[in-house]
Design a protein that fits this description.
heterodimer, A: alpha+beta, Beta-Lactamase, seven-stranded antiparallel sheet, 23% strand, B: 692 residues, alpha+beta, Nucleotidyltransferase, domain 5, Dna Topoisomerase Vi A Subunit, Chain: A, domain 2, nine-stranded mixed sheet, globular
Chain lengths: 559, 692
């Protein structure tokens, strides 16, 4: 067997990453779903023949976990011997396809060399709709996955290089705005073709054996980084418990519990005690749980490192079956990101005593989702979904960020001008919520307020929020941040509070939908806040004079 | 533009102000003469070095300032002011409900996995961001009329704040600027002449409000800084007897007048990296090479860019000091791989190079200034690719023993030999550069094999062959003075302006009307610019293009298309050109799919007379001045002849291996590669097939 030097492994890694980046950009620029083109909710990866992720370009945490099991399920279903050049496979199901929710559509292509299957390329993209009961396939109010959209097991979508029209037609018939979705599928297929072509070029430089050994080397390198990082954390047992508000279907106060044990270079995370699987769509698949754990660990020990299969090796995850963090069929999972956010908050909370300078207080803990659909004044049906950031937790040495996406989500907002050009909606306000960051030596970030109105027509609105009841906690004496809310603002001034997970609500043009996302917790006692930060809090208008006086005893500049 | 006046004494000057040096390229075409001059920059008052340098050049060479017909200069005044946040005081007036937009931005963090890193705080604090009731809809319908009384109240509130400039930033103003313009008018009237007022639609009329507002605020913040600088410079230069006004290099290539630069200072903020590209373009054009990838390697970074059909690629979206900037800028990709980049072993056991650099101090270990880290330069010394005794014509001593010690520390950890480690460092640095070049070529649908590599900067020529080989590039150009190319580029530049007219509409039966309307607006604005910049009709050029996308997409492709009057046939041709470009760029087209027009653009050029590149004389072939052992690859170590670059004259041919040394750069010719010196002094290398 050949061996590669550490230099050659680095050179190969560089080459593979470059190909992933290229696939990522190709999808972003040619796709139709707003989630992809503006918010970059997609990713690309290269796998070895055994199906291990070797490199993931533009690493999206939630997609990483879906990638981890993707090839395995395809191999199980078809057997490597039945996979041929020119094939591509389509998959989105959390239970039979190891996905995390239905709108994330994965397309996988085997890459052959001299007739031998040597690698795979794949990409995952969040489509604006995958069918089901509600437009956008993300709304609450559903109790099983059948209602959430079209379930696609790993099946062929391309054979002998030709798109299987029957399959594509079946898929497109089941989704809203098929014309646009077709463009998304085309963009994903074209990106895999591009990746395959680039790998074939790479084969000129690297022998088959060099590639095999090199992929091992790239994966081992990540394992070494993880092991070194875990070894850096103090050994011990840690515990934390947080609570999700509700599932939108009657279950409230759902616990998320984590027990962590660190010994040497390995870590065990057990989620025993977390709530049972719920009726609503807050359930997280095992892939989503893996993603959340890997995200939290990477944040703490190796933010700059690459992501691949090697991360998993020293990390042991266990969770009760049929629980909200490890759901079983036929649980609804569309809003699993809410639960992922809370799992991460909990892991950071558990390790606060271990690495107080690396963790942050609780962030907005939500993945605020707003979906609007309807038939606009021009007679065209439209569908629009977006996610809204909130406060980020305060840090050991600086304030938390105001109005930002946190943890597993880092998708950009859609510019108001782009939104209003494409949809018959008007954004009336988009602003920080004064006072919503928890006080502390360092304050938590502020939540966001976004107010929408349908122009001259009735819109169907669904929302998904969290932490309307259980606020984002502070650390080491920091105060909790503000809670979230969803309300209708009727013309004339009346404010009608809604639940935090309203589903398929009809809203006329004489009312606006107001979404307020949670802020974040503070860090350290408010009494330790420095004078210049206090002056900034006051002068910026982010806190009222009364609050400043009561919380900090601050009487104004020079006071 | 007095192109016809053929004064044999006429002088063209290009000045590039860098962080360390201010470089002059002076051309006197009537005498086939080029003078290069270098002096230390004066960072606190950059105009000082320009004026001093100009005096020195004129005095040393007995030139008459009155003969200067071009005085182009590139400056980093705006860039530095923004990085240091030493800028004017700006207030923002914006649509009600959107005061925090500049702070929220895109509601993202810079890196997914880094919970400690933030984007910078806005340049304008929250208390200087004012809201006024007004609202346009996307289709231009007034949703809420502008509350003029509220604008007046805002002007009163600002009165005590000593504001330098007010930026008026309303939603949808890129297409419907009426509210912005009216508010600006009221503010100008209320605030008086001491306060400048500008609108976002005037600075850059394109949709995506956060980026437009950010660009507007950056421009506003630079107004006073750039104004004061240009006032001093123009006066000092005029005092020396120069009759032409200095022109300023733009981020997107080309020059602008001092007057235009005063109004749009942000347009020069990314001109630093652009200068080298323009220098390469000037030389490439003279030699007839239309497709070129530029590679500029200095001490800390490698800058790469691409010229297709002689035109530098332009991007419209960049970040500056952490803020988004949406103006045309040359697509220069910078990566942390330069001569001073440090090699290190990561915690995963793999060898990494950069982005940390040993800088000028302490510098690479071999400089003997106390640097202990192994750098790319140290590796090159061990490989014999750099001399092991001195650099800069003997002015800087090299300590091979220190380079050896530094590399040995890494070699020991990697359990590899010294030479293999040194070679690995160079390979990893080159791989980073290759990745950067792929990002601007293959990721944009260009095959690097169709391009020549134009290498400059201190370390560009040294690594050009390795980089070219990895990318399948067959030919390398190295200019006669790789270290001073930027100033020369200013001699070959024209006045340019980029105009855009947003015209979002579906591409249906009425497409011709939409396109004709946009064209009419742009033509009026073009005429005004030519008039303002004093460009005579024979020197006026316009390159027209239309930004299109399939309905529902969000990224546009700019399709070059010049039609003074559109009709259905021309519109159909435009459609076809778009489908073809989409196929080329993304691998598929959706022919027959509905399309949208996003905007029309025109790049205006006011052609300036350009001195031809001076030609070098031919002479007898040069003889090597010595030889040394050079490691070209793992098992390829050759006794290699050394040549002096200035001894190589036009027509000289060399076959590698060879090392070519000059004051500001070192050049490596691999075994069997063939080099020749062309008429303009460029070294042209044709790479032998080295297999893979």
């Amino acid at each position: 067997m050949v061996t590669l030097t550490p230099i050659e492994v680095e050179l190969l890694r560089n080459g593979l990453t470059s190909i992933c980046d290229e696939m990522f950009l190709a999808i972003m620029k040619s796709a139709y779903s707003t989630n992809i083109k503006e918010r970059h909710d997609h990713s690309a990866a290269i796998f070895d023949a055994a199906g291990r992720v070797v490199v993931q370009g533009e690493s999206l945490p939630l997609h990483l976990a879906s990638m981890l099991g993707l090839v395995e399920v395809v191999l199980e279903r078809y057997g490597a011997e039945n996979i041929r050049p020119g094939d591509m496979f389509l998959s989105n199901d959390p239970f039979v396809g190891r996905g995390s929710h239905l709108p994330d559509v994965a397309i996988l292509a085997p890459v052959f060399r001299d007739g031998e299957l040597v690698l795979f390329v794949s990409n995952i993209a969040h489509h604006s709709d995958i069918g089901g009961m509600a437009p956008g396939s993300m709304a609450g109010g559903m109790t099983e996955i059948y209602q959430e959209g079209l379930r696609i097991p790993p099946i062929r979508i391309v054979q002998d290089g030709e798109i299987l029209r029957d399959v594509l037609d079946l898929v497109l018939l089941n989704v809203r705005v098929p014309r646009e979705r077709r463009g998304d599928y085309m963009a994903q297929i074209a990106a895999n073709r591009l990746g395959t072509r680039r790998l074939e070029e790479l084969f000129r430089r690297w022998s088959r054996d060099q590639l095999v050994v090199g992929c091992d080397g790239i994966i081992d390198a990540v394992t070494r980084r993880m092991r070194a990082g875990i070894a850096d954390l103090p050994d011990g047992e840690y515990h934390f418990e947080d609570v999700l508000d509700d599932d939108g279907m009657g279950t409230t106060d759902i616990p998320v519990v984590v027990h962590i044990r660190i010994a040497g270079e390995e870590i065990w995370l057990d989620f025993a005690g977390s709530g049972a699987q719920v009726k609503g769509n807050m359930n997280n698949s095992f892939a989503g749980l893996q993603a959340s754990v890997l995200f939290a660990l990477k944040v703490l020990i190796d933010p700059d490192g690459a992501t691949n299969h090697g991360m998993l090796e020293p990390v042991h995850i266990s969770a009760p079956e049929a629980s909200v963090v490890n759901a079983s069929f036929p649980a609804a999972t569309a809003a699993r990101a809410q639960t992922c956010q809370r799992i991460i908050d909990s892991i950071l909370g558990a390790l606060a005593s271990a690495v107080p300078d690396r963790v942050i207080a609780a962030s907005n803990g939500a993945n605020g989702v707003a979906t609007f659909s309807g038939t606009g004044p021009d007679g065209r049906y439209y569908l629009y979904m977006e996610t809204i950031g909130g406060g980020a937790g305060a840090r050991a040495y600086k304030d938390g960020t105001d109005g930002v996406q946190v943890h597993v989500t880092n998708t950009s907002n859609l510019p108001v001008e782009a939104l209003e050009n494409e949809y018959p909606l008007l954004v009336e306000r988009y602003e920080l919520i004064d006072g919503s960051g928890g006080a502390g030596a360092w304050r938590g970030g502020l939540g966001l307020r976004r107010v929408y109105r349908g122009l001259d027509h009735t819109v169907t609105f669904s929302g998904q929020g969290e932490r309307a009841v259980h606020p984002p906690w502070g650390l080491f004496g920091g105060q909790p941040g503000g809670t979230g809310s969803i309300a209708l603002l009727h013309d004339g001034g009346a404010r009608e509070g809604l639940t935090i997970k309203p589903a398929s609500l009809e809203v006329g043009p004489d009312a606006a939908v107001c979404i307020e996302t949670p802020g974040a917790g503070g860090y350290g006692p408010p009494g330790d806040r420095d004078a210049s930060s206090l002056e900034e809090d006051h002068r910026s208008g982010k806190y009222t004079a009364d609050f400043m006086r009561e919380t900090y005893g601050y009487e104004g500049p020079g006071g | 533009m007095n192109k016809s006046a053929k004064n044999p004494m006429e002088i063209h000057i290009g000045v590039d102000v860098g962080g360390t040096f201010t470089d002059f390229a002076v051309s006197i075409p009537g005498q086939n003469r080029q003078i290069l001059h270098k002096l230390a920059s004066s960072p606190d008052r950059p105009d000082q070095a320009i004026v001093d340098g100009l005096k020195e050049v004129l005095a040393t060479h007995g030139l008459d300032a009155g003969n200067i017909v071009r005085f182009g200069h590139g400056t980093t005044v705006g860039t530095n002011a923004l990085i240091q946040r030493r800028v004017g005081k700006v207030a923002v007036v914006t649509s009600q409900g959107f005061r925090d937009l500049l702070e929220i931005g895109r509601q993202i963090r810079p890196k997914v996995y880094d919970i400690h890193q933030d984007f910078p705080k806005p340049l304008v604090p929250r208390w200087l961001r004012y809201e006024v009731p007004e609202r346009m809809r996307a289709d231009g319908v007034v949703h809420k009329v502008l509350d003029e009384a509220a604008v007046r109240r805002v002007a009163e509130e600002m009165a005590g704040e000593e504001i330098d400039c007010v930026a008026v930033c309303f939603l949808h103003s890129h297409a419907f600027p009426a509210h912005e313009e009216r508010a600006a008018e009221i503010l100008r009237h209320s605030l008086g002449e001491d306060v400048s007022v500008m609108t976002s639609s005037m600075v850059y009329p394109e949709f995506r409000e956060y980026e437009r507002f950010s660009t507007t605020v950056l421009n506003a913040a630079l107004l006073t800084v750039m104004g004061a600088y240009l006032d001093r410079l123009t006066k000092s230069v005029a005092d020396l007897g120069v009759v032409v006004e200095p022109t300023v290099s733009q981020s997107g290539g080309g020059l602008m007048s001092a007057g235009y630069s005063r109004r749009y200072p942000i347009r020069s903020a990314l001109s630093g990296p652009a200068a080298g590209v323009l220098g390469a373009a000037y030389r490439a054009k003279a030699t007839g090479e239309a497709n070129v990838i530029t590679l500029d390697i200095g001490g800390t970074s490698a800058d790469v860019s691409l010229l297709a059909d002689g035109e530098a690629s332009v991007v419209h979206s960049r970040r500056l000091a952490g803020f988004p900037l949406r103006l045309p800028a040359l697509d220069v990709n910078a990566v942390g791989a330069g001569g001073g980049s440090i090699a290190w072993i990561d915690r995963d056991g793999l060898l990494k190079v950069g982005p940390d650099s040993a800088g000028a101090l302490p510098g690479p270990a071999c400089y003997g200034h106390g640097g202990e880290a192994a750098t790319v330069t140290d590796a090159n010394v061990l490989l014999g690719r750099l001399p092991s005794d001195s650099l800069l014509d003997g002015r800087m001593a090299i300590r091979r023993d220190l380079a050896e010690a530094a590399i040995d520390r890494l070699a020991e950890q990697l359990q590899m030999s010294r030479q293999v480690t040194a070679l690995g460092i160079v390979q990893v640095a080159c791989a980073t550069i290759v990745k950067a070049i792929r990002a601007i070529s293959v990721e944009r649908g260009h095959d690097p094999a169709d391009f020549a590599l134009f290498a400059f900067g201190g370390a560009g020529p040294l690594h050009a062959a390795d980089v070219a080989h990895e990318l399948g590039i067959k030919r390398i150009f190295i200019p006669p003075n790789p270290g001073i190319l930027c100033a020369e580029g200013l001699l070959g530049s024209d006045l340019v302006a980029d105009l855009v007219q947003p015209s979002l509409a579906s591409f249906g039966v009425e497409a011709s009307e939409t396109l004709n309307a946009a064209r009419a607006v742009l033509e009026r604005r073009a005429d005004a610019w030519f008039h303002d910049e004093n460009v005579a009709p024979p020197d006026q050029r316009g390159a027209w293009s239309v930004d299109l996308r399939y309905a529902g997409q969000n990224f546009e492709l700019s399709i070059p298309f010049d039609a003074t009057a559109f009709d259905p046939a021309k519109a159909a041709a435009l459609r076809e050109a778009f489908d073809a470009e989409h196929e080329r760029a993304y691998g598929f087209a959706q022919a027959g799919e509905s399309m949208e027009i996003v905007s029309m653009r025109v790049k205006l050029t006011g052609v300036l007379s350009k001195p031809p590149l001076p030609k070098v004389a031919g002479s007898a072939p040069a003889k090597p001045m010595g030889s040394r052992l050079v490691t070209f690859a793992k098992d390829e170590v050759c006794e290699t002849p050394i040549y002096r670059r200035d001894a190589l004259n036009s027509g000289q041919n060399l076959i590698g291996p060879a090392v070519i040394e000059q004051m500001d750069s070192m050049l490596l010719l691999f075994p069997d590669d063939r080099a020749t010196v062309d008429r303009w002094g460029n070294l042209v290398i044709d790479l032998a097939d080295r297999g893979v």
